[in-house]
Predict the structure.
Amino acid sequence: MGRSLMPKGASNEDRFWSHIIKASDPEDCWSWRGGNLKGYGIFHVRQEDGSYKTYRAHRYLFELINGPIPNGLEVLHRCDVPGCCNPRHLVLGTHFENMKDAAMKGRSYRKWLDDESVRRAKKYRAAGFSQTAIANVLGVRSSTISNLIRGKSHKEIRHTNTTTPENDKSANHPVESLACAP
């Protein structure tokens, strides 16, 4: 595994395709049989000066078929199989979308906060509850609440409701379990 049996001087594209096992059904994953790092295929692209640049296989494939990946975007696997190289399974998305997708599908140690939980967390913080208490009630890490409060995550959510946690009839968890911040 890892090295192909391609003749010396073969093109990068020919070398690349020699590492892929296409499934008989075009909707199934295509396996990468080259090197890998944490389950993601890696491919060493020979440069004009004779040096090599390492790419993730799915990213190289995406660029091979579609051209350069725009700045700020990543190549995501719709199939959730890191070693898959089926172009039908690859889509562009932001890092934010990728992390949200991973958390929603249980592939991350982080729990994703839905829009309502974000609004609730912001209301609780505005009412004086500690970040740790809010995190405990919502079942997330304190750093998640800290990032939310500092605007490092969930930037698209705006707190517009002035309802306090005590008056929040939509909350389906015990507000009394929150401890006020000192």
